From TrEMBL:
One of its GO terms (molecular function) is oxidoreductase activity. Keywords: 4Fe-4S, Iron, Iron-sulfur, Membrane, Metal-binding, Oxidoreductase, Transmembrane, Transmembrane helix. It comes from Thauera terpenica 58Eu. Residues 276-307 form the 4Fe-4S ferredoxin-type domain. This is 4Fe-4S ferredoxin-type domain-containing protein. It comes from the Bacteria. SUPFAM superfamilies: alpha-helical ferredoxin, Respiratory nitrate reductase 1 gamma chain. Signal peptide: none annotated. GO terms for cellular component: plasma membrane. InterPro entries: 4Fe4S_Fe-S-bd, 4Fe4S_Fe_S_CS, Cys_rich_dom, HdrC_iron-sulfur_subunit, Helical_ferredxn, NarG-like_sf.
C-alpha cells in the first residue's frame, strides 16, 4: 500500500512555512497596535524588557506554564491542560516523524512505542476531550461568557480544531488499515481501521491520501488563523504574564506635572492615552468573564463590568480608533466611578490583565480633565482641599480619640515608631477605638512610639478618586513633615494608608519603612512581647482588606493574630479571593444605586453565615463599612479590628516592658 510521497510532504512543509509566516505577520500586527500606547517608565531597580516591563519569571511559570489561575475552576483547568499538553505531545510526534526521511525508524523501539504510538494517541484523545469541553460550554450559553459581550471567533476556531483532531484519527485509521498487523498503542486508529478494512485496498489507499491531506490542510488553516482570532491569547497571554509587575495589585503610573517634554495627559479617554502594557491587556483578553464574576460592583448590580470595559476598549483598538475620545463616553462615567479599586479583577484574570488600571486612568481623566464626577466625590475633593481630610459633617475633633490617654508626641532622634492615625481613625468615632486599642498594645509591649501633633491624611481618597494633583500635593506635604521629624518607621492602622505610604510615596521621595499594625502585632506576639489569653470557644471570622491581601500579599499575619485570641473560622471567600467591603475608590462616601444590594451588606452576610460571633478585620474603612451593615442584623457589636481583639485579650503579663526589637527593613 502507498503512503504520502516525499513530494506531498514537501508541499505540506511549504504550506506549514506559509502558515507560520501568517502567524508571525499577525502577531506583528498586534505588536504594532500595542506600540501605539504610552511607554512606561520601568521601576528604578528593574531593566525594561518590553513595554517598559521587566521579565517576571514567577508569574510566567505559574500563570503561563502551570496555568494556576485556570485551575481555580478545576474543569476548565483540566480542559486547558488536556488541550495544551496534548498539542505539545502531538507537535513533538509530528516533528519527529521528519526523521523517517533520513532513514530513522521512528515507529520502532521505545520512542516508537511510547511517543509515536501511545503518546500521540493519548495526546489526540486529550485534545479531543479538551476541545469538546470548550465547545459544549460555549454552546450551553454559560452566562459569564455571554453577559457583557463576546469575543467573536472562538466558536469557529474550536470547531476547526475539533474537525482537525477527528481528521487526524480518521487518517490514522486509514493508515493502519493498510498495514498487515495492527499497531499496539494506536487503539483509536485500530478501532477505526477495523471498520475500514471492508472497503477494499484501492478505496483504503485513496481514503488514506484524502484524509492525510485533509488533516494537514486543516492544521495549516488553524495555524494561519491563530493571530487573527481570539486564540491569539495562546501567545499574548503568556507574554502578558511574563510582563506582570513583581508587586501585586493595582499600580497607577505617576504623572509628571513638571514635565515640559510633551503634552501633559491627565488620565485616559482614548486608546492612545493608555500604556502599551494596557494595550497588551486588551489584546490578550478573551472575554471569559471571570473578572466580571469577581467584581463586587458587577455582582451587586452596579453599572461597572470589567469585562465590558475590556471588550469595548479592545474593539476600539482593533478598529484603529486610537484617537477617538468617544470610548470613555461609551463606557460611561457611572461605571467608571463604581470601581472600588479592590483588584479582584486583577487577581482573577488568567492572562494577567489589569482592567482596574484602565478604569482608573479613565477616572483620572474625568476628574482632572473634564471635572466630571459624582456629587459625593466632588464633596470629598472639596474637603481634601479645604480641610485636609475627606469627611464632611463629622462632629469629631482631631484629639477626641485620645481623651483620657497619655499619648506621646513623636520626638526626632528619640522615638522609634510614628503611630500614623489617618483620616478615618481621627474623624470617625467607631474607628477611633482602634487607635485607643493600639495605644494599649504599644504600651503593653514597651514599644517606643509617638504621634504627630496634627491631623493628616495620606491622600489615598484623592489618588483612588482620580485626583492625582491633590494626592501629590498632600503627599509632598507629608513627606516634608516626616523629613523634618526624621521619621524612619511608621505604623499604620488603615490598609489604604499603608498602600499609599509603601507603594506611591517612594515615587515622590519618601524613604521610611511602613508597617501595617497587623504585621507589627503579629511580630510582637511572636517575640513574646505581648501575652494574650486565647479563648478557644470564641469563634472569629476574618475579613481580608483588599489593600492588604490582593494589593500587598498580606494574608497570614492577621490570621495569626486572630488565632492567638480565638478560633478562626474562614468565610467561603477569603484571603486573596475575599470580597471587597465596598469602601475603596472613594465609594465609602458614595450613594448606593437604588434597587441593588450594598456590597458591604453582601460581605457582612457571608461573615455572619459562618456562625462566628465576631467579625475581625485590619482596616479602618473595612471596619466602618462592615459595622454599618452589621447593625442591620441587631444592635450587638459584631465587627472588630484585630487591635481591639488583642487589647481585650491582654493578660496580666505583657512582656518585659523594654522597647521592641527593630523590625527588618522588609517587614
Amino acid at each position: 500500500m502507498s503512503s504520502p510521497s516525499l513530494t506531498a510532504y514537501f508541499i505540506l512543509g511549504l504550506l506549514l512555512i506559509g502558515a507560520f509566516a501568517a502567524l508571525v505577520v499577525g502577531m506583528r500586527r498586534h505588536r504594532l497596535r500595542i506600540a501605539q500606547g504610552l511607554v512606561e517608565q520601568p521601576a528604578a531597580e528593574e531593566s525594561a524588557l518590553l513595554f517598559g516591563r521587566s521579565f517576571n519569571a514567577n508569574t510566567f511559570v505559574h500563570r503561563a506554564l502551570l496555568t494556576e489561575r485556570l485551575w481555580k475552576r478545576p474543569a476548565a483547568g483540566l480542559a486547558h491542560t488536556l488541550l495544551l499538553g496534548g498539542a505539545v505531545v502531538a507537535i513533538l510526534g509530528h516533528a519527529l516523524f521528519a526523521l523517517s526521511f533520513v532513514g530513522v525508524e521512528v515507529y520502532s523501539g521505545w520512542i516508537g512505542t511510547v511517543l509515536m504510538r501511545w503518546g500521540r494517541e493519548l495526546a489526540g484523545l486529550a485534545m479531543l476531550l479538551g476541545v469538546v469541553f470548550f465547545l459544549v460550554r460555549r454552546l450551553s450559553g454559560l452566562e459569564r461568557l455571554i453577559k457583557g459581550g463576546e469575543r467573536k471567533g472562538f466558536l469557529a476556531m474550536e470547531v476547526l480544531l475539533l474537525v482537525t483532531v477527528i481528521a487526524g484519527f480518521v487518517a490514522e485509521g486509514f493508515r493502519l488499515a493498510t498495514l498487515p498487523d495492527s499497531s499496539s498503542g494506536e487503539f483509536i486508529g485500530n478501532m477505526l481501521a477495523a471498520g475500514l478494512g471492508g472497503l477494499g485496498a484501492e478505496a483504503v489507499t485513496r481514503g488514506e491520501m484524502l484524509m492525510w491531506w485533509g488533516h494537514g490542510l486543516l492544521g495549516v488553516a488553524f495555524i494561519s488563523l491563530i493571530a487573527y482570532t481570539p486564540l491569539s491569547h495562546m501567545l499574548l497571554g503568556p507574554a502578558n504574564s511574563a510582563l506582570v509587575r513583581k508587586r501585586p495589585g493595582i499600580q497607577l503610573a505617576p504623572i509628571d506635572f513638571d514635565s515640559e517634554d510633551e503634552e501633559l495627559r491627565l488620565g485616559a479617554s482614548r486608546i492612545v492615552d493608555l500604556s502599551q502594557k494596557s494595550l497588551l491587556d486588551l489584546s490578550a483578553c478573551v472575554g471569559c468573564g471571570r473578572c466580571q464574576e469577581a467584581c463586587p460592583a458587577a455582582q451587586t448590580g452596579k453599572a461597572l463590568s470589567p469585562k465590558t470595559v475590556m471588550l469595548a476598549c479592545a474593539d476600539y483598538l482593533a478598529q484603529g480608533k486610537i484617537d477617538d475620545a468617544q470610548m470613555i463616553d461609551d463606557i460611561g462615567a457611572e461605571a467608571i466611578f463604581d470601581c472600588t479599586t479592590c483588584a479582584a479583577c486583577v487577581e482573577e484574570c488568567p492572562v494577567s490583565n489589569s482592567p482596574a488600571e484602565i478604569v482608573l486612568e479613565m477616572r483620572r481623566h474625568l476628574v482632572m480633565d473634564r471635572s466630571e464626577m459624582p456629587d459625593s466625590l466632588a464633596m470629598v475633593n472639596r474637603n481634601l482641599e479645604s480641610r485636609g481630610h475627606p469627611f464632611a459633617g463629622t462632629a469629631a475633633n482631631p484629639d477626641d480619640w485620645k481623651k483620657g490617654l497619655d499619648v506621646p508626641l513623636f520626638e526626632a532622634g528619640e522615638t522609634e515608631y510614628l503611630l500614623w492615625l489617618g483620616c478615618a481613625v481621627t474623624y470617625e468615632e467607631r474607628a477611633q477605638e482602634v487607635a485607643r486599642a493600639m495605644v494599649r498594645i504599644l504600651e503593653a509591649a514597651g514599644v517606643s512610639y509617638g504621634i504627630l501633633g496634627e491631623a493628616r491624611c495620606t491622600g489615598d481618597p484623592a489618588k483612588m478618586g482620580g485626583n492625582e494633583i491633590q494626592f501629590v500635593e498632600m503627599a509632598q506635604d507629608n513627606i516634608e513633615a516626616f523629613r523634618e521629624r526624621k521619621i524612619q518607621k511608621v505604623i499604620t492602622m488603615c490598609a489604604h494608608c499603608y498602600n499609599s505610604f509603601d507603594r506611591y510615596y517612594p515615587e515622590l521621595g519618601a524613604d521610611w519603612v511602613t508597617i501595617p499594625h497587623a504585621m507589627l502585632i503579629e511580630e510582637l506576639i511572636g517575640q513574646g512581647r505581648l501575652q494574650v489569653e486565647r479563648d478557644e470557644a470564641e469563634l472569629i471570622t476574618f475579613h481580608d482588606p483588599c489593600y492588604l491581601a490582593r494589593h500587598n500579599d498580606i494574608v497570614e499575619e492577621p490570621r495569626t493574630v486572630v488565632s492567638a485570641v480565638g478560633k478562626l473560622i474562614e468565610m467561603p471567600r477569603n484571603k486573596k479571593e475575599a470580597m471587597c467591603c465596598g469602601a475603596g475608590g472613594c465609594n465609602y462616601w458614595s450613594t448606593n444605586k437604588p434597587g441593588t444590594p450594598r456590597i458591604s451588606d453582601v460581605r457582612t452576610r457571608e461573615a455572619i453565615d459562618t456562625g462566628a460571633a465576631k467579625i475581625a478585620t485590619s482596616c479602618s474603612f473595612c471596619l466602618l463599612m462592615l459595622t454599618s451593615s452589621a447593625t442591620r442584623d441587631g444592635p450587638e457589636r459584631k465587627v472588630f479590628d484585630i487591635a481591639e481583639l488583642v487589647a481585650d485579650s491582654l493578660g496580666e503579663k505583657h512582656g518585659s516592658g523594654k522597647p521592641a526589637e527593630v523590625l527588618p527593613a522588609d517587614a
